[in-house]
Amino acid sequence: MTRRKENILILIGTLTLVLLLTLWRTSKLTMQEDTGPLPEGQRSMKPVDLYVGPDVKHSIDRLVTAFELAHGVQIKKTSLSTPLDPKIPLPELNSSVLFLMSIGQKPLLNQIESSWTETVVPTNLATAVEQEEQLVLIHFPENQADPNVIEVVQYLSATNQAYYLYSGKIE
């Protein structure tokens, strides 16, 4: 075998090994199981599955983009059907799932257990919002939820985000 053929075989073998290791690592990151809370200081690689109720306007898009850029957390935003159909099953419920909807739409989430936590998004003092239109975040309890979900909840429930979230509701 000539030196040139040896070099080509070594190059092909190296590229194949790099490709296999990359595919294996990618599959390990995307197929992580829900094993509960992470040890202190360890960051989750799982994206947050944000399901937005039909009554939340497109103002959430800007907030999601800003959060992704600032925190390096991927958010998969999905809009729920208009109006919510209780016969259509919800997506798989796990510690990476977060719902954002108005309190008036919440009873339609009949598949969610009562153990889930509800965080009400506060309104601005200048904003008058009816009780049924007030927004609520529904997620796993803090000690069981993915840390990325808790970060998103804290971000969206901050009082300075209320203007953007309620902007579609104010006449």
List the helices and strands and how they pair.
Elements: H1 3-30, E1 48-52, H2 59-71, E2 75-79, E3 97-102, E4 117-120, E5 135-139, H3 147-156, H4 162-166
Parallel strand pairs: 1-2, 1-3
Antiparallel strand pairs: 3-5, 4-5
**Largest sheet features:** 5 strands, mixed
Can you tell me the overall shape?
A: elongated
| Tally of separate domains | 2
CATH architectural category of the largest domain: 3-Layer(aba) Sandwich
N-to-C CA distance: 80 Å
How many individual β-strands? 5
Using only CA atoms, what is the Rg?
22 Å
* Fourth-tier CATH superfamily name of the largest domain: Periplasmic binding protein-like II
Fraction of helical residues: 25-40%
Walk me through the structure.
The chain has about 170 residues and is of the alpha/beta class. It has two domains: about 1-30; about 50-165, 3-Layer(aba) Sandwich (D-Maltodextrin-Binding Protein, domain 2). Helices cover about 35% and strands about 15% of the residues. Strands 2-1-3-5-4 form a five-stranded mixed beta sheet, covered by helices on one side. Helix 2 (about 60-70) links the parallel strand 1 and strand 2 (about 75-80). The longest helix has 28 residues, at about 5-30. The radius of gyration is 22 Å and the shape is elongated. The N and C termini lie far apart (about 80 Å). The relative contact order is 0.17. The model has no long low-confidence stretch (mean pLDDT about 75).
